[in-house]
Write a structure and sequence with these properties.
The protein has 29 helices and 26 strands. By secondary structure, it is α/β, with parallel strands linked by helices. Helix 10 packs across helix 19, helix 17 runs antiparallel to helix 18 and helix 24 packs antiparallel against helix 25.
Length: 871
Amino acid sequence: MTRAAAHTPLIQQYLDIKARHEDAILFFRVGDFYEMFFEDAEVGSRLLGITLTARNNGGSADVPLAGVPVKALGEYLPRLVREGRKVAICEQVEDAAEADGIVRREVVEIVTPGAVVDESLLEAGRNTFVAAVARGAAVAAGSGAAATGPAAVATADLSTGELEAWECGPQGVADELGRLEVSELLLPADAAEPGPGPWAVTRREPWRFEAEVGRDVLKRAFGVAGLEGFGLAVPRDAHLVAALGAVVGYLEEVRPGGLRHLRAPRVHRRGRHLHLDEMTRRNLEIVEPLRAGDGGTLVEVLDRTATPMGRRLLRRRLLRPLVEVAPIRERLDAVGELVGQRGARRGLREALGKVRDLERLAGRIALGRATPREVLGLGRSVEPLPEICEAAATLRSAPLRSLVDGLDPLADLREEIAAAIDPEAPPAVSAGGVIRAGHDARLDELRAVRDGAVDWIARLQAAERKNTGIENLKVGFNRVFGYYIEVTRSQLGRVPDRFERRQTLANAERFVTPELKEWEAKVVEAEAGIAEREAALFRELRERLAAEVGRVQEAAERVAELDVHCALADVAARGGYVRPEVVEESCLEIRAGRHPVVETRVPAGEFVPNDVVLEDESRIMILTGPNMAGKSTVLRQVGLIVLMAQAGSFVPAGRARIGICDRVFTRVGASDSLARGQSTFMVEMTETAAILNGATDRSLVLLDEIGRGTSTYDGVAIAWAVTEDLADRVGARTIFATHYHELVELADVKPGVGAWNVAVRETDDGIVFLRRLEPGGCDRSYGVHVARLAGVPAAVVARAGEILAELEGGEAGGTRLAGLADRSRDQLTLFDARESRLADRLEGIDPDRLTPLEALVLLHELKASAGSGDG
């Protein structure tokens, strides 16, 4: 974009502002429209489907132009943000009537995929995070060089004010970003991306990711002399400070009006949460289904929360289970008491259902974005807080009592809002009628003047009809001409001289009188005074509320925790879940365990519970059985039960004893990665390598087939070696579901390995899946039976049965297949007699002795012979 001397003052102003926001689409306020110029207009018109036109540029070349109405911002802005675009909102910051020359404009807000506060851009049940990454050794230089020290991911949710930093290993950044469900990622300009993800990437200058800069940003943002109060110290925590500073600095830029609602950072160090990599989150279907649109996730089953804050907290807890016994037991204590206290639980849920999104309401108030109805919403949301405390009066467990006893009812804020805001307040201050009558004497006086003038004008019509004798005379109003007296043409002869003509219509004339103009001036003056006074009073109220936003946020946190405990208790009571015994020892005992999602999708009573015990004498379970028997269901239900227990939830089982797991690994199903040039088998081996390199003796490993993407012997060899390594070196609790029946032999020769199978019953019509785990291995996969159930043509199924019988009854694999080929010629017709005669003739030809002409003649003869079938 270049500046030309012939640019108009407006375009010059636009270019000045655009130069400071080159990476954003600039919405430039001009009257009732947000205009886009130059390249922004071309991009905006394409993405929004609006007309691209041009603006006269004072004699220079016309400037490309596209615009959207100010009142339609909520319709167009989300479309750009969902495309991953950044939008800078530039407003007129002075009255056009008072401007000396061109109206002054400033960017008041920058909306990005990770920094949004409008409801149209937010999901009630999940956070919208902007994140920054800083890596150990690379922090000081801000470079993209490979780091050997720990890494940090800092996240902020602008809509709620949450600010957190997560420490992870140098190779665990991508997993952490995926687990946090980041919307926008901040990276140094010269740094490599941590991996593919759904987030939008924003590049920043490398110096913004230096620890010294981050320290200064945090000290300024929170008004502190040092970071020790946040549990941070440089140089030990240089990576955490750098990441936090990068995020906060970015938010200060996109919200130049301030971040009063930003909470003090919470720091999470490595080893405090159960690690769930992307593969495990996907395979266990914790918050997203494997296939879009299928539904059936863990969060859908457990989410009986009543508030948006609770819904977000539940989602976070399921993605960040704990690894310390004490806090897990505290959560289970709370859930357990609520399971037993049905009346208290019902009362709490009813009261919680009246609370709106306190966190986001507080955020909008602190950012100066709250509308009158949102302020009313805050008042109505804090109103049930005493009711929540009353419903919880009988609860005695320490975690619940701590939450309730510390819950600030915010009575002063509720009363102030109720006293100031009219219960029928409109959405916008400009519409008037926001401030309640009796709240402000000056405003009441102005309203009285306005209402008195309006009443006088209303009485004027009757008086003038009597004075003039014009029965159809009427007094009206429009925004262009103000108040007027209208007389039809047929009655114009009766109009007195004191009437002054204002407007001519097709069938009437409009007039004013000196008295009408005088009363109209009173109305206009009063209306302007009312609008100004109401706006000032509303701003003052919003400022007072913003000063108390910390109290609102703390109350919202307590409400969210109570909500999650109630939701989990309600699910447990309805689903017959039990309290798991969570212990430090490395053990896993699940009796009559059930899959929490699958059991909700089958008729009541049809799901078959199973026992799974993984302890020292049998830490590894080799699980065999037919396709469709339910092996994968068993694997996933064990993983979900462990995850639920460590998140603080009761579990679907008859009894459960869970030893703390540091990680849950899954390798389920087959997939490829064509974009990375990786085959199914390569992906499988990569995932297996990640498990073997990352698992410890406190991990849970769930394997559903290994080595199926290569030859049988290769596959068996790899699967056997992997199992040996898990048993001998790693020591992780493992369930290995496989069709390699050879692995069952490991149970006889390898300590700590046991064999189980998913039982079936054979009948004359095929097989019946019993879904029940039994000791011992299974020596058949019943794949032919499953093929028949899937609808494979009967002839193919029958032939497959014959081939299977030959293979199972033969000797070496090569001999079996050769024999099958010999006995299959009539059916397969791969080498018929005609082909044999052609082969014999070719065998007797010496190509080196043929002349070119002889070769050509021979080719014609062979072609003719093949076509005729004579050989």
